[in-house]
Amino acid sequence: TKLNGVKYHWNTADYPDQEFTDREQVGFVAQELLEIMPEVVSQGRDGYYSVDYGKLTPLLVEAVKQLSAQVEQQDSKIGELKSALAEMRLILQNNNLNIRSEETSTHAEK
């Protein structure tokens, strides 16, 4: 399941008593977030959902740590693969030199 950030405007016309700002907002759809991280979503007496963004911070920090660890592992594996590739290229290069040397020796003998 993906976490999707959204931009939105409050419905100020239908809810003038809420004193919503008319500026563009950023956040998450609470109902979508409820499926992924229910601990950061609550439902008020009015039935509306809200997101406690402060609770998201430690969860997102841990997700970044996990991704960083994956990147480090992949970097290490890439380094290993590059070394193996360089070694294989050297072997091929040496084999090609040996083949050429044999071909030269064979032609010289004739």
Explain what the structure shows.
- The chain is 58% helix and 13% strand.
- It is of the alpha+beta class and 110 residues long.
- The longest helix is centred in the last third of the chain and has 57 residues.
- It is rod-shaped and about 100 Å long.
Blueprint of the fold:
Blueprint: E1 5-8, E2 25-28, H1 30-36, E3 41-43, E4 49-51, H2 53-109
Antiparallel strand pairs: 1-2, 3-4
Identify the notable features of this structure and list them briefly:
two-stranded antiparallel ribbon, 2 helices, alpha+beta, 110 residues
Mean pLDDT: 90
Given helix and strand content, the structural type is alpha+beta
Largest sheet: 2 strands, antiparallel
The backbone outline, from C-alpha atoms, is rod-shaped
Beta percentage is 5-15%
Low confidence ranges:
none
Strand order of the largest sheet: 1-2
In short:
This protein has helices spanning 30-36, 53-109, and strands spanning 5-8, 25-28, 41-43, 49-51. With 110 residues, the chain is of the alpha+beta class. A hairpin with a 5-residue loop joins strand 3 (41-43) and strand 4 (49-51).
